[in-house]
Amino acid sequence: MCISATAARAFKSVLQGILLSSEGEKLNSMNLLLYMSPVAIVVLLPAALVMEPDVIDVTVSLALKHRFMWLLLLVNSTMAYAANLANFLVTKNTSALTLQVLGNAKGAVAVIISILLFRNPKHESIKPDT
């Protein structure tokens, strides 16, 4: 699954690079985001509803319980939009390979920061018997 996800991400990055740099297409980052968003909804929404059938009920109950949930969802959506736009701009101004390297570096930095923040607990059961 990890290899196929990496291959799919690489394919998406290469396709973005081709669409953003092609003289015949004349797409800018905003238009590409506009055209890719409905496709993402059509693919991801049914998958989410199949894998998590009670997601709508849970969302409504959380919205009734927590006052600021809709504000948090709006902020989260805005940040996701900005991240996608930044990815498209990086692809347009550099290359798909640069975007892949940055994505892998981001994953490594996230792991290092999480280890530094949350520490790696020492497990007594892992220690060898002496």
Automatic annotation (TrEMBL):
Domain Sugar phosphate transporter: 5-121
Membrane topology summary: Multi-pass membrane protein
Gene Ontology CC: membrane
Alphabetic keyword roster: Membrane, Transmembrane, Transmembrane helix
Location (main, coarse): membrane
Subcellular location: Membrane
Transmembrane segments annotated in the record for this chain: 32-50, 70-90, 96-118
InterPro entries: Sugar_P_trans_dom, TPT_transporter
Top-level taxon of origin: Eukaryota
Protein name, entry field: Sugar phosphate transporter domain-containing protein
Native source organism of the sequence: Ambrosia artemisiifolia (Common ragweed)
